[in-house]
Amino acid sequence: MSKIAIVTDSVSDIPDDIVKLYDIYVVPLTIDIDGVSYKDGIDIKKDDFYNLLNSGKMPTTSQISPIEFMEVFSDLLKSYDEVICILLSSKLSGTYQSALLAKENLKNSKITVLDSKNFSLGAGLLVIEAAKMARNGGTRDEIVSKINDMISKISYIMIFDSLEYLYRGGRLKKSQAILGSILNIKPILVNNDGELEIKDKVRGRKNAIKWIINYMKETNVDFKRKEIGLLHTDREEFMLEIENAIRNEFGVTNFIKNRAGCSAGVHAGPYAVGIFFELD
Hints:
- By secondary structure, the chain is an alpha/beta fold.
- The chain has two domains: 4-29 and 64-151, Rossmann fold; 154-278, 2-Layer Sandwich (Hypothetical Protein Tm841, Chain: A,domain 3), CATH 3.30.1180.
- Helix content is 39%, strand content 25%.
- It contains eleven helices and 13 strands.
- A six-stranded mixed sheet has the order 10-9-8-13-11-12, sandwiched between helices. The chain has a four-stranded parallel sheet with strand order 2-1-6-7, with helices on both faces.
- Helix 4 (95-106) links the parallel strand 6 and strand 7 (111-115).
- Helix 3 (66-76) packs across helix 4 (95-106), helix 5 (121-135) packs antiparallel against helix 6 and helix 9 crosses helix 10.
- The radius of gyration is 18 Å and the shape is globular.
């Protein structure tokens, strides 16, 4: 049985306990703040990062370089037979292209690089499934086939207090970002083939939660059988309100919850919440 290493980037926001449980290898993006560079989750922790964000700092991220991926892949192939690398949507970052360049430079067919076409825990759900399959003896072809099938089925809803951070990070136009500046208006974004699309805007938390429930109902998915990902940047209370609503409405008992890491927080800002799930 081949030993397969599962690799991802720090934007996948997989909880630390799951990373450890399945031996997932997380390659950190670089966070740049006031001319100082930090490796996400290594040189700067979440509390410190969000304190800086709330103080008005505007950090940026740097994608993982091909050289960094080459080092990771080469090191893992000393003890693993295969490497499967699942990364943030190529439409949101150049990290995927960096990994492809690393594979090309190494000229090693044992490396597989996949574009998750997702953001944050949307990619994380794919990585967790791949890691479970690898742990249970799945082959590279089986894992890749399963993940490719799942990619188009992962759906997410992101709710923001402000779209300013997405605009500054180049993920939205200025005209779109203005939506988030209206008092108590919460823009709602969804996944559109690897990009963030503004789907609607609502006023206040209660209406946002109603919107989430209605959106999930329209999918006609039996969510009792699903694992739901929940994420917040600096709004755990709001995330828990959403969890209770989903639990009560759909009977869901299996949640993966986390506070977004620094890389996702740079673009989402300090007051965002996300819901991630797989469609049938």
